[in-house]
Backbone:
């Protein structure tokens, strides 16, 4: 907790209430001490700025562009926030509560007058509002609003309302399931293209009509090399099955069931049987096809009880 | 009887110790086993002109030849389909010897299958190879069927369903293998028999397979030396005459996942091997005194008994319940303890035990052995041998 801000009582357990309490104290504390600019308003910096922005206004560098006001009080490469800086203090409170990510949402500056080279600025800031928790597209967070005031010899010359969203980053997506990936070639592509669109495709000879799984390029019955496919009904019965316990396998939690299913069409296909009590699976049990989406590129055939 | 039958014999066997951490490279294991087998055969590396191994073996024939100082190789090759290659290495060696292509062929298998790459884990990259095998694996691995135990369990579940067998029937195989291993000092499970209750209480690996339905994971190497039966007469040990050697692959064959055939309760590729073995050797199941049956997982021992004709389809459980595979049973199976009890060396340690049973030198020696049938990996394209006294 920063100096100048009383610690929030440990008795306040509700995280949101602790945040509100800290915010109340910071708002009540009002402006922090003015922090003087490192350098006076100066022509070299004005020239660099207008050159970079392509601003050929002849008034520069006789006066400074108003939008440069923040530049004059920047902390520099190794600058650090002052201990009593209210935005820094509020940020620490929200960081500790898990709202560790930040995005700036609003910035509005008001200029009282032009600044001239040689003038020395100071800036002070106060916390004006902390609102939340809010659900946002980025995640749950708090909007933190501060107002900064720039002065020259005590005279207010510019003001800025600045609002950030401090949010809790969403949990990282679960790591993709790593399963051995099938080799896909000209002979088998139709099958995997089928599972990707929710179809269980069975090779059908374009000549004699024989069904076959696993597929191959030449019909073992008639010798034709014109394989096509039919979309299976997806209904079948468990012809045999295993319950895998050991060793652990990537992408699966043990125990799990792998079933060899005889489809209504008469061919057999392997797949995980999901949604069934491993201890209750029986040969002959009716199942239907299910599709196990591993990622955008791989969908495995699977089964569920019917 | 075929031209191959009896032409060649196994004249030497060698092995490293069987362990869980050999502490040396797979190539060193291979070289040690090959040298031991040559010593056993009374032959020198310079006598070797052929080497055969598994396509899964990490040690190329030329690497093993370099370590042994084999000056020339006229015949070399690698057999595919995992443990299905075991007997086929000897079968190919016998064909080379029988046709005069080679004189002395050594078959070997060496791996750190426990301390290095473990077959019981999910094979990384199984679906990645741009090959027909890689495509085949794509129907299986992605949906979660991705260990050898799981692939066998799928057959086993159907077998139980069709024939009314139970997990205890599988367990009787494990109990017998551990009982045999208990009196074999070379076995990892020497002195550690199990009960059927312990089998039933062991944790699930992939239902319906318990832990004790699954063979070990082992480090080690085995090599065997094949030469002509005529030359074998001049060597130190009685020859184990190769009276039959066959390979088999069935209709709609896959590696471990031939799930798309009409029937899942048999191993037609092994049935094909069996018919060839009996025809080549001119014998039948009743003429066999010892069976060296590939036991990576218990259920396929039952199916092998049926496919080989030692009992009818679906009747193996009765054969087992009657003590059929015990040392004093109708067909003593794997007196060394098999891969469940001794070590998992991809079937090659069973092959070596078959030779010992023919020689009469096994620790759990069966009386009056004249013919031994040896099988290789099941669920895959496979192979078999009949070894006979000379």
Residues:
């Amino acid at each position: 907790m920063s100096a100048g801000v009383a610690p929030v009582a440990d008795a306040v357990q509700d995280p949101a209430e602790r945040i509100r309490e800290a915010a109340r104290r910071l708002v009540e504390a009002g402006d922090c001490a003015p922090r003087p600019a490192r350098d006076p308003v100066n022509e070299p910096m004005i020239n660099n700025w207008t050159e970079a922005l392509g601003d050929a206004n002849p008034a520069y560098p006789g006066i400074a562009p108003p939008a440069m006001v923040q530049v004059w009080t920047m902390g520099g490469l190794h600058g650090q926030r002052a201990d009593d800086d209210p935005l820094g203090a509020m940020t620490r409170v929200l960081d500790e509560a898990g709202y560790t990510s930040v995005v700036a949402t609003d910035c509005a500056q008001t200029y009282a007058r032009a600044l001239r080279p040689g003038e020395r600025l100071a800036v002070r800031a106060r916390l004006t509002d902390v609102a939340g928790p809010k659900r946002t597209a980025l995640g749950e967070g708090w909007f933190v609003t501060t107002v900064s005031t720039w002065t020259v010899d005590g005279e207010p010359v510019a003001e800025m309302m600045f609002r950030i969203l401090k949010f809790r980053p969403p949990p990282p997506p679960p790591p993709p399931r790593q399963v051995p990936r099938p080799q896909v070639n000209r002979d088998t592509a139709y099958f995997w293209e089928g599972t990707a669109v929710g179809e269980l495709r069975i090779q059908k000879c374009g000549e004699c009509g024989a069904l076959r799984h696993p597929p191959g390029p030449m019909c073992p019955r008639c010798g034709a090399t014109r394989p096509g496919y039919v979309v299976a009904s997806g209904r079948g019965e468990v012809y045999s099955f295993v319950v895998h316990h050991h060793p652990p396998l990537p992408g699966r939690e043990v125990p799990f069931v792998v079933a060899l299913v005889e489809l209504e069409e008469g061919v057999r296909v392997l797949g995980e049987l999901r949604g069934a009590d491993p201890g209750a699976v029986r040969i002959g049990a009716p199942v239907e096809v299910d599709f196990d989406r591993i990622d955008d590129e791989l969908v495995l055939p699977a089964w569920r009880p019917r | 009887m075929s031209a191959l039958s009896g032409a060649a014999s196994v004249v030497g066997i060698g092995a490293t110790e069987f362990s869980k951490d050999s502490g040396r490279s797979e190539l060193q294991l291979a070289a040690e086993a090959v040298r031991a087998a040559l010593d056993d055969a009374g032959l020198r590396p310079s006598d070797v002109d052929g080497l055969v191994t598994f396509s899964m073996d990490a040690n190329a024939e030329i690497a093993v030849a370099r370590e042994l100082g084999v000056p020339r190789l006229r015949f070399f090759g690698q057999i595919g389909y995992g443990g299905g290659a075991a007997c086929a290495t000897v079968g190919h060696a016998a064909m080379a010897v029988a046709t005069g292509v080679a004189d002395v062929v050594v078959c070997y298998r060496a791996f750190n299958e426990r301390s290095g790459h473990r077959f019981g884990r999910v094979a990384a990259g199984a679906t990645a190879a741009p090959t027909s095998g890689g495509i085949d694996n794509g129907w299986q691995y992605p949906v979660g069927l991705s260990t050898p135990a799981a692939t066998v369990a799928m057959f086993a579940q159907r077998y139980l369903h069709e024939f009314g067998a139970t997990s205890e029937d599988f367990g009787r195989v494990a109990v017998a293998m551990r009982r045999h291993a208990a009196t074999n000092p070379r076995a990892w499970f020497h002195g550690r028999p199990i009960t059927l209750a312990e089998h039933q209480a062991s944790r699930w690996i992939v239902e319906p397979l318990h832990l004790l339905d699954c063979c070990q994971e082992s480090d080690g190497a085995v090599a065997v030396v094949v030469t002509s039966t005529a030359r074998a007469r001049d060597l130190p040990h009685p020859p184990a005459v190769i009276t039959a050697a066959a390979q088999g692959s069935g209709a709609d064959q896959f590696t471990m996942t031939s799930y798309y055939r009409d029937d899942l309760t048999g191993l037609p590729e092994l049935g094909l091997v069996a018919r060839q073995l009996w025809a080549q050797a001119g014998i039948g199941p009743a003429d066999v005194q010892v069976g060296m049956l590939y036991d990576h997982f218990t259920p396929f021992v039952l199916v092998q008994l049926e496919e080989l004709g030692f009992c009818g389809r679906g009747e193996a459980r009765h054969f087992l319940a009657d003590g059929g595979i015990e040392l004093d049973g109708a067909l003593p199976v794997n007196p060394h303890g098999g891969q469940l009890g001794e070590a998992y060396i991809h079937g090659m340690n069973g092959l070596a035990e078959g030779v010992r049973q023919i020689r009469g030198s096994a620790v759990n020696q069966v009386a009056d052995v004249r013919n031994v049938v040896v099988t290789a990996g099941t669920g895959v394209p496979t192979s078999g041998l009949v070894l006979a006294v000379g």
